[in-house]
Amino acid sequence: MKILNKVKEKLKKIIRAKPVSLKPKKNKPVSAERPASVIRDIPGFQETIAVNTKFSHPEDMRARSAMPQELPSCYGKDKIILQVRDVRWLHTYWELGSQAIEELKNKLGDDFYRAKKILRVYDVTNIVFNGSNANSFFDIQYNDFANSWYIDTAGPGRCWCVDLGLMLTDGRFITILRSNVVQTPLDGPSWITDEEWMIPEDIFARLYGMGFGLGKSSPVGRSWQERLKKGLFSSGISSSPVRKEVKERSFWMKVDCELIVYGATEPDAKVTVQGQPINLRPDGTFTLRYYLPDGKQIIPVKATSADKLEERTITPIVTRETR
Amino acid sequence: MHGHLPFVRHPEHEDFLEEDWLYEAITETYVPLISVFEGLVADGIDFRITMTLSPTLISMLSDSLLQERYLKHINKLIELSNKEMERTKWQEAFRRLAEMYFNRFSHARDIFQKYNCNLVNAFKKFQDLGKLEIITCGATHGFFPLMDVCRDSVRAQVKVAANHYESVFGRRPRGIWLPECGFCPGHDEILREAQIRYFFTDSHGLLHGTPRPKYGVFAPVYCRGTGVAAFGRDLESSKQVWSSIEGYPGDYNYREFYRDIGFDLEFDYIKPYIHPDGVRINTGIKYYRITGSGNHKEPYVAEWARDRAAEHAGNFMFNRQKQACYLNDLMGKPPIIISPYDAELFGHWWYEGPMWLDFLFRKVACDQNEIRMITPSEYLEENPRNQVITPSLSSWGYKGYSEMWLQGSNDWLYRHLHAASERMSELSRSFPRAEGLLRRALNQALRELLLAQSSDWAFILGTGTHTSYAVRRTKDHLLRFNRIYEDIKSNNINENWLSDIEYKDNLFPNIDYQLHQ
User: ipTM of this predicted complex?
Assistant: First the structure.
């Protein structure tokens, strides 16, 4: 009961939250931050405006409705697609429209509701598959909500085909959709060796191990497993191959000091700080910022008038001591 | 070396965080590499390097808006490093580093302007000099094994890339870096159609091929039926550079990547140089060396790091000499050792990487005569007889196959991507000779499809961090594609909207939608 209440609460929140999410999103260049005329002149803005000023203009609404924000849930084509993920796993996804389901219901009557939803996975290695000549097959029962599945074939180097279908109560299997055929790769070296290019096993074993950077003595077959353990793969754009930050403990603090020295004089005067000339702003003011290490800093600031007749020196002395 | 960045260009936003990927790569990787090449040529050092410049990267480097923005970006960094020289006046170790960055950034701007703000000109120059072999990649770095059910799209990825390459470099590409090193048997046929002579696979792509490759990964093979050559990655040399445990980049004298003044300094001071929303980001100014395994860091000492880079280059060369001698005895012919790396490793992640490469080139040219550098084209010219096999499905991603791009967090993409591919094929079949507005719409449809296919989006979703941008990009391109498709089908193309999209997603100006079939 408690859980049910929680769910209800959540639902309420979601329902309440919904109108909020329909407000213009706070994306980077929102029209409010720029005059509309400027935006209109910049090509490429059109689509962005449509997104950002949703519901604010009848005109924009039209542009908006022409450009949906979410991808369609189906494409109106019944099909099942099979892809290889690695040496033993396949991935399949399918689309089955309501029309096909209605036809099946009409054809099968009550049997339809009693039937199990099945993915039949055929091993079709070295054959032209005609639906009934598979080397072997196994079934996977899937639930009503699934539209994709990962399949463990445990069979490297073999060809596979999948039927999406129904298993009737009398044991008959009805195919609704048939997938493309795919082949899983080998998980070790091929046992086929070209006769013309015959090579002794021990030499190949050394080459094989070296190919994986594992020295000269790895037996054929094991090197790949070792490589998997060592994780020697490329890492792509958003992670470093170099090294991960070592986090010792999560709690931390850091404190540091900087010093700002600022002042003003006649705009045409020459100013030096610790003997080195600095640039003044057009109004004669200046600001300098330094990292302040521990110890004493003596900072003579000297201004000389443009005609070099007058001079002023002011010398702040700053001591930092960190305990 | 594999140089790629996804197409990130947002004219509709003045500051766009993800565009920094390009600016950082220019300052930290591409300019330093170009400087290394320039130095070698000036000193008469012969060298060879094979490098991908992905079509999206070329498009961004050649884009005038991004060039303008890069200049703005590098000018800000020069300004910041200038301020840093003053701020660190009483800390000699840091002041010297601030000066190092000031010089580095100024140099980056000089090089950038020397090549008319288009670094592709620089790379082309070294290719024309015969030192660099530039190869192509998938048009937008789509991961081919997961496009196998719609090979029309693989074909478009390859052919759009090859044509784009030709328009930039004045000749056909001889080789290709398959995105993520992802090879699926049969795709060699598409490479052959595009007159591409060779590609690379990860080591198991060759080692697990059928029949067994006689020389392992130390000689190329020809794909059965097509004769396209495949070169296999050598993991021993990869490991020396890549490995997070044994690799060179982890040396304690090298620069620490994770300590950047964008995060370390006081907020008001650094605010003008981070994201306008106040989000702290990397500026590229990093003052510390790795120091040790803990969080305590000491200031970087450029001389020490330089010495170490020279030492590591010597070590790398020594190991290759030993490896080559051993293999030569075993095989009875000279082996080829393929050591591919992401370009961004050099300079961006591993600050001393370009310097290491410079030392390596010089040592190989001057200090020994057992090994030499060679491009795959040159190797094939010299060694035309090779074994014929069918390489295995493989990639250089996590676990060696497709899992990085096909897991719970990103598998939903493929339903939409495949549907769009199918629709694109339908369009190009329905309109074999479109002209005018219709042609523009069809071409743009292909651009949007290609952009949606970038493996980078699936990769980011797979890593699970900063995923919102990747989701947005995939959806945006698919939605634009779907709208163009609907508009064409209902014979109702909105020219204003189309122009807008053409302006935003402006890559591949000469694209031909007929390549998708």
Answer: 0.92
